[in-house]
Amino acid sequence: MRLGVINLTHSSRAAIKFAQAAEAAGFWGVGIGDTVPERYQDTYVTAAACFAATERVHIGPTVTNTVTRHWSVLGATARTFGELHPGRFFAGVATGDGACHSVGLTPSTWAKLEEDVAKVRSWAPDDMEVHIAASGPRGVEAAGRVATDLILGTGLDVTALRTLSARARAARTAAGITTPLRIWGFVTTYVAPDKATADAARISQRGRSVGTARFSFSSTFEDKGVPEAWQPILRKRLARYDFSNHGKGEGNTNGFLFDDYPDIQEYLINRFQLLGTADECEARLRQVATDAGLDGCWFTQSPLTPDEDPIQRVRTTGEALQSLSDFEPAQA
């Protein structure tokens, strides 16, 4: 099972140390965020610096889009990295939900993204992996037709993971593609030293749970296993999502959208976050991977406090979950 960790530091110098720590901890990949430009540095310049400072780990945007980054730019970038660091660059791509909205642009459609990815792949090295992040039927079907890997942004809900994976693979078969499609989970992760610290993190990271829910549920609830009675409430409240807070941890006002619906708030935290002690996190992810047939999982690790050391977080997560690197769940 592949494990990847997404860099959310706001400094390219910090990102280099992050990538080095991830490599030392045994992660397969490091994702470089490509969103909210007032808070993050340039993705590809940062990726180049991280490549130069590491030897093995795979590095790529997680995720970029073809609105703020035209497909020709991504294609040329992929070809360049393929020459300089053969086999290590991958392209994580989606429609650009938060990235586009945060700068006043409209995200791509899945049909347009599918066209763009096909164009990127015609320019890029033949062995470049394309990881498409999606959370609904149209997105996973597009991924089935043009990607090597599908990142499911539906949290750790086994029903959704199994149903959408099957849908993507059916689309792949219908397109006449015989190479397998790898399926990844995606979850915000915090390996806590004790239960009290984990409980505190559940409260402070509510905003990130809501942000992932907005991405996951914005288009449809189809195939996502969301309780029907909660769907109207979720739709109404997520429509109030404040993109000026997108990507923030502490101080993210989106975390208060469900304060008057504690059951829904708890549901979102449980679904979209992997929080607990090392043993709890490892056991839960192993069970989800087994039940859903995951080939990998991407972790985001937003800081809980302004002075927290993100490098130590990478080490801690690697130590807690590295046993899963040799784990091979059967296809769901």
TrEMBL record:
Check the record and name the InterPro entries matching this protein. F420-G6PD/mer (IPR050564), Luciferase-like_dom (IPR011251), Luciferase-like_sf (IPR036661)
- Per the database record, which ranges form the Luciferase-like domain? 12-101, 126-295
Keyword Oxidoreductase among record annotations: yes
Highest taxon in the source lineage = Bacteria
A single GO molecular function term of this UniProt record: oxidoreductase activity, acting on paired donors, with incorporation or reduction of molecular oxygen
Gene3D superfamilies registered for this protein in UniProt: Luciferase-like domain (3.20.20.30)
Keyword annotations for this protein, in alphabetical order, are: Oxidoreductase
| UniProt keyword Oxidoreductase present | yes
Q: Which PANTHER family match?
A: 5,10-METHYLENETETRAHYDROMETHANOPTERIN REDUCTASE, PTHR43244
Q: What is this protein called?
A: LLM class flavin-dependent oxidoreductase
- Which organism is the protein's source? Trebonia kvetii
